[in-house]
Amino acid sequence: MSNLSRFRYLNFMVQSGVLPRVVISTHYHLGSTIYQLGRALSLYTFTLLLQQMLQCQATHCLNLVFFGDLIWLKNLGEERSEETV
User: Which terminus of the chain, N or C, has less C-beta within 10 A?
Assistant: First the structure.
């Protein structure tokens, strides 16, 4: 699955309220990466992992940043990205 396909799928999940705490962004903040997810993950595995991380970070937002073939997840806390979908 391409990054664009994942982006569209995750955007749909956010729009439908499945992942209300996620901010999807195309902006990458250097030095702020917490997790790296390779593109080898299936969409199902990726979604489960994302949901588990959201449960662990229930009081925070996670920023998904598409950077080449990797998806970067960043703990935003009170911070907000300027480029959101």
Answer: N
Which pTM does this prediction carry?
A: 0.29
- Residue 85 domain-assigned (yes or no): no
Of 67, 83, 81, 78, nearest to 35 (Cα)? 67
Query: Is 73 within 8 Å of 57 (Cβ atoms)?
Result: no
Q: Which domain holds residue 28?
A: 3-75
In a domain, 43, yes or no: yes
Q: How confident is the model over 31-63, as pLDDT tens digits?
A: 333 334 444 455 666 666 666 655 654 444 455
The dihedral of CA 72, 82, 26, 28: what is its sign?
Answer: negative
